[in-house]
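One such given next:

>
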Amino acid sequence: MFEEKRLHPAVIFFNFIKTLKEAIFPIGAGFFALRNEAFIYFILASAVLLIGLITFSILSWYRYTYRIEDEELRIEYGVLVRKKRYIPKNRIQSIDLTEGIIHRLFKLVSVKIETAGSGTGAEAALKAVKLTEGKQLREELKEIPEQKSMLFDEQTDNIRKPSAKIEFKQLFLAGTTSGSIGIILAILAFLFSEIEQFIPDAFYDNTYQMIIKLSITVIILLAIAILVLIWLLGIAGTMIKYGNFTITRNNDELFITRGLLEKKQLTIPLKRIQAIGIDESILRQPLGYASIYAEVAGGSLEKGEDFSSVLFPIIKTSKIDAFLQKFLPEYISNRDDLVELPKRAKKFYLLRSMYPIILLIAGVVYFWPQFSWIPFILLIASMYLGFLRFKDGGFCIDDEQLTIRYRRLNRKTVVVFHKRVQSFEISQHKIQKEQKLATPILSIVSDLGGRHYRVKDLEIEDVNRLADWYSYR
């Protein structure tokens, strides 16, 4: 692969769509501003802009070339300013393949190449190449013989390459308990805030009058129907995202394939894994389910949820050790034998959970006393959350391995090795000092540059024991 190659011509379409999306709001603003007397100028400006976008997309595709030469991937691109990027083979950490809907129609694939210092995005991204060329490129850069390639290979050796695949009922349960209603509501709120300025005032007035005429029962039923619809959308989104989820270990790498509409294959080198986490959401924990994720050093932020790489979306907590034994046996830990928080720390956890609600109660009682019962219910819920945070906090040291557990809303258990801990800090305010409590803060390398873990209000002797473990004293 020494000759220069260009991406598939479909990249022209991708570039055009991307640029058009970035310009859609200015175009919309121009339409509403000039839709009356100066509309002809808007049409002319839009035509010129459209021709410019098409021309720029063609030139961007034509000027983008890549080749492998002298153990390097060499990329040259740029329309007005010519840029060159050389990526040595030995610096490449992972190569991920993505097949979007349009990619799959034309048997294309997007190739994302990551190095240790890729930051928030991939080091290089080939937006569209033929699937066979994507396989060949990966084999050349990773120096993997063709017969050992894991690229979309359905016939893997389950003995030499252990794998696990999500079942439909697991996938449906993952969508049901994903808690994505809040995320979808936030997205809808953002979209509404963007288009609100273009909605006529008459629409608001008509909608308000229509709602006033409805009875309270109808409004409640309508709200429930909307929440159910959003919940179903969350289920569908999860099933589309994690459909056909398969994880396979091949020597010193994990390969993850997922997606129904957009098929992705992610590569996680084991040497880049900094910690393994178990996430038990407030919905899944009572059902005995959790998800497993990995904190990975370097790379882009596109591999999974919450900037972490999801190793399995949902799994029974009783089967976590069997999963780790199959893929990452060194991360099996004594999760049920933790050093717990001292009882005198309970009041601090309760107060930290309650004080935002107390402020809310004061405001509601003053302005809307008839609704004061609502924040009191939230106060009881916050007290229970504070109790759960106190109950779940703890840690366990097992030679070079450290297990810590904490809760914000979800309960998280993190297993990390001593060599992965980059820094250790002890935080202690005046009240903690009087109570002989302290908060340890451990930091590891992650996608965001660093991930920090803390278990608040531990016994000071236990914190000192953690400090001794970290410093080898």
User: Anything to note?
Assistant: Residues 343-390 form one domain. The two ends are 54 Å apart (CA to CA). Residues 144-152, 154-159, 301-306 have pLDDT under 50 and may be disordered.
